[in-house]
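Why do we care about 3D structure at all? Because function follows from shape, and shape follows, mostly, from sequence. That is the central idea of this module. The next example makes it concrete: a single protein chain, its amino acid sequence, and then its structure expressed as tokens.
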Amino acid sequence: LTSEYNRWRDSLQRVPTDTGASIAGWRDLTPAGGIADAPRWLNDSTLIYNATSGRASFAAYTIALGADSGSRPKPSRLRRGDTDGANVALANGALVFARLEYSSPYDLRSDLYLESPNGATRRITKGERLSNPDVRADLRIVVMQTIPGATRLAVVSADERTITPLTHGDETEMWTEPRWSPDG
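And the structure:
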């Protein structure tokens, strides 16, 4: 195993590190290494995303996209994260996100949370297996809901009391990452 690992490692070192832009106008925005995941527009010139260097927990970051394409914008850390999913910013600066946690020693579940601009976190759902949220201007949340053997799309009401399935969900359907259209 050691010799095979060394062959693989050596093959990676022979790969050129700068292959140039793969698409005209393409440029890297985030620092090299690790994972940058679930980007969303915070406003017309700023992205919010989750990232990890691979040596630390995921965290929510923002990055402002300037007109200067010659320099890399600097990311700004918003909060410590504990999930690799999307952070959806509300108009008041709060964030909606899904968090994985154990509901028993053997069961891992995902629910929605709201983090206020001052950093206080409030649980929105419990035991609903919801992830990949996207929030509309009227505060309705479209999500992916995991059900036995499948996923389905659902909407959480603005008052957070009702979860309404949008699709049936069976073993032939796998839904993920729903988004509201710009006009709602």
